Amino acid sequence: MPVANDLRDKAMSTAQEKILIVDDEPNVRKSIVRVLRSEGWQIMEAVDGTAALELMQQIDFNLVISDLRMPRMNGVEFLAIASKTHPNSAQIMLSGHARPADLENIINQCKVIQFMEKPWMPAELQEKARQIVAANVDQRRQQHASQMMVGEVNMAAKLQLASLPKPIRAENLQVDWIFRACTTLGGDGLGYRIVEDRLDFYMVDVVGHGVAAALESFSLQQILATSDMRQPELVAQKMNRDHVNKGDGMHYFTLLCGSLDLKTHSLTFCQAGHPSPVVLQNHQLTTPGGGGFPIGLLAEADYQAQTVQLAAGDSLLLHSDGFADEVTADLADLLINCSQRRAVRLATDDTKTVCLATSAKERLLEWRTQQPIHDDVSALIIGI
To answer: What H or E segment, with its residue span, contains residue 351?
Structure first.
C-alpha cells in the first residue's frame, strides 16, 4: 500500500543513525565523540576490536571509525572480520603511523571507505562522516526496497501459478497444463473452461519477459477468460483492434484460442502468430493451422477460424514457441507413444477413465527440461 510504504520510508529516514568508535586511547575516543556529537547520532565506544565485535553483535552500526594500532586485535584484523560479519556497516580507518603494508592490507581485507591520518582535522572528519553516513542510510533504503520488490515479485509468481485452471479429470475429457517462466514471472498465459457442452480455451504469449510482460499477460487473460470462443476469429479481431497502434512496433502478442464441442468433437480455433496446434488421431500426428499475424502489429490483419473434426480417443497439444519452435521428430515420437499407451489402457481398463493428460504432462515436461529454457514455456494437453 502506498501509505504504508510512505510511513516506512519516513521511519527509516528519521531513525537515529548509530556510530561506533574503536580506539584504545580514551582521549582520542572522547575527541571524536565531541566532533560528531552535534550530528545527533547515537555514538558508542569500544576499547579494541574484540570489544567492538561484541557490540556489533547487538547493534547494527551505520559507521565504524577505528584506529589502526590497538592491543589484542589491530584495526585491520578487526575491520576485516567486521567486513564479513557486518557488510552493511561503513568503515573509516584512522592512523598516525601506517606503513605501506598496512595500507595494502586495508585495501585487500577491509571495506574502508575513508582512510585518515592522525592528527585529523575535526571539520574534515565531521564532513567525511556525515557524507558516509548519509550514503549508508541511502544504500540501506535501496536494499530494503529491492528486498521488498523481490518479495512482491515472488508473491506475484505464486499468484500467477495459482490463477491457472485446475486440471480436468473426466471419462470423456482430460485437460492439464505445463507452465514454466524463464524468469520469476512470465508473459505466457493459458486458460480453459467448460461452457455448456464445449471446452473454451486460449493461449497467449506476450513479447518480452519479466514483470511488464506478466502484467500485460494478466490483463489480456482477464478478457480472454470470459470471451465466447465459438467464433474465435471474432475474438482475435477484437483483440487486434484494441491493441494495435499503441506507439510501439515491438509491442505485440501471439494468440491461439478456440472451442472444442464435447458432443460432436468438432474443434474450432483461430491462430494469431501462435504455433499451430498438434493433433493426434489414430496415432498419426498433424499440425493444422497457418500461423497468422500476431495481435497488435497490423491494423488490417485478417483472422480466420479453422475447424478440425476429432473423435473419441484423439488428443491435442497446444503450446507456446518457448515449449517448441516446431514439432521435432523426437517430440512427435513422444506424443505418439503417449497416444499408444492410452489406447492400450483404454482397451484394458474397466473404468474407461484414462488420465492421458497427467502421463503425457510428465513425459513432455521431462522432454522439455532436458533443454535450456530461454523463453517462457507453456502447453495445454487435451484428451477426449
So the answer is: none
